[in-house]
Structure formats: C-alpha cells, structure tokens
Design brief:
Length: 200
C-alpha cells in the first residue's frame, strides 16, 4: 500500500539522519529485520558540591556580643529553674543517686556531664579573692566559668589554678579546673583519671 511505502521512506530518511555513519545496506537490513536500536548517549550530570555554611569567627562573635548576658538578665532568681532542671538531669544520668551508688561511677559521669545550671563553689584557689565564690554556672568556656551569685553579680572565674566543689543530694564532687580546660562539648569524649591529687 502507498502508506507503507511512505512510512518506509520516512524511517529510512530518519535513520540516515540519526546514524549518518551507517551505510544504506545496513539500514536496509535493519528495516527488513524490523529491529531498530537507536544509540543514545546519556550526558553525565555534574553534581554540584554543596557549600558548607561557615559559622562566625571568634572576632565576629565578640563584635555581635552573642555570648554576653544583658545586665537586666543578671539575676540569680531567674536561673533557679535552670538549676532545678540540671538536678533532674543529673539524677536521670546517674540513675537516681542512690545511697548505695558507687562514688567513682557518679564522679565519672559528673565529669562528662553538662554543667550549665549547676551550683558550684570555689574551694581552693591560688587567687584568695576567688575562694568562696558560689553560684549557678551560666556559661562554660574552655578556660572560664561564668557564674551568677546570690548577690546578682556575674563572676568570670578561671578554671586554671582553681578547685570547684559541686554538691547534689549529699554527694560532693570536686573538680580540678586545671585538668578541666575543655569545652563542654569536648568533655563527653574525654577520658578522665579519677585518681590523683587536687593540690594547686
């Protein structure tokens, strides 16, 4: 029929355009077998690398005053609920702080715990004016604690050359600041030696 001839002519012309390197004999053979495989090359998609968002530098954080506590917020009473939350967090962490609990196990967990909200006291220090400072830890940095006292004074206490005591449910733990020069996020992976001296 006339339509089939038109179709054959169209397919022949299409194959000739699509595969210009193929000879007419090969195209005719493909048509007689009625099996046509068109070659198609996939273009490789180049994956765009995601740019990592860079955080603020230390200088930018200081300029933006990101870690500064406003004077009107420097009140001991405001942070008492934080201390209550911290106590519950430690009780859960130490499975209740029972009287028969092993002290060294509690000590090891406290050394790795988050101390934001804990009430600490400076018991020993090379700086006499630091001894006796008691308050809630508001911020912990690598080298210092920021503590709010009952007198609503914000104290920046260095860890170096200071020994801190921490009391909870009758259990008293001592922290030697000189061996505690780590950020809170780094302490969870740190292995501490429980035996040792706290002499300054």
């Amino acid at each position: 029929p006339q339509d089939s001839e038109k179709a054959k002519t169209f397919v022949h012309a299409f194959l000739k355009r699509s595969m210009p390197k193929m000879k007419d004999e090969a195209i005719h053979e493909m048509l007689t077998r009625k099996a046509v495989v068109l070659e198609h090359y996939h273009k490789k998609k180049t994956k765009q690398k995601r740019k990592k968002t860079k955080g603020f530098t230390a200088k930018q954080r200081r300029e933006l005053r990101l870690f500064e506590i406003e004077p009107e917020q420097q009140r001991y009473a405001i942070f008492l609920p934080l201390h209550e939350l911290w106590k519950q967090y430690i009780r859960d962490l130490c499975h209740g702080l029972k009287p028969d609990a092993q002290p060294h196990m509690i000590q090891s967990k406290l050394l790795k715990a988050d101390l934001h909200g804990a009430i600490v006291t400076v018991t020993k220090s090379k700086c006499p004016s630091c001894v006796g400072i008691t308050g809630i830890i508001l911020q912990e940095f690598k080298h210092v604690f920021k503590i709010i006292t009952k007198e609503d004074k914000l104290k920046v206490v260095p860890k170096l050359n200071n020994v801190f005591s921490l009391e909870l449910d009758g259990f008293i733990s001592y922290i030697c600041g000189s061996k505690f020069l780590l950020r809170a996020s780094e302490r969870s992976a740190k292995k501490f030696k429980l035996k040792g001296t706290i002499d300054l």
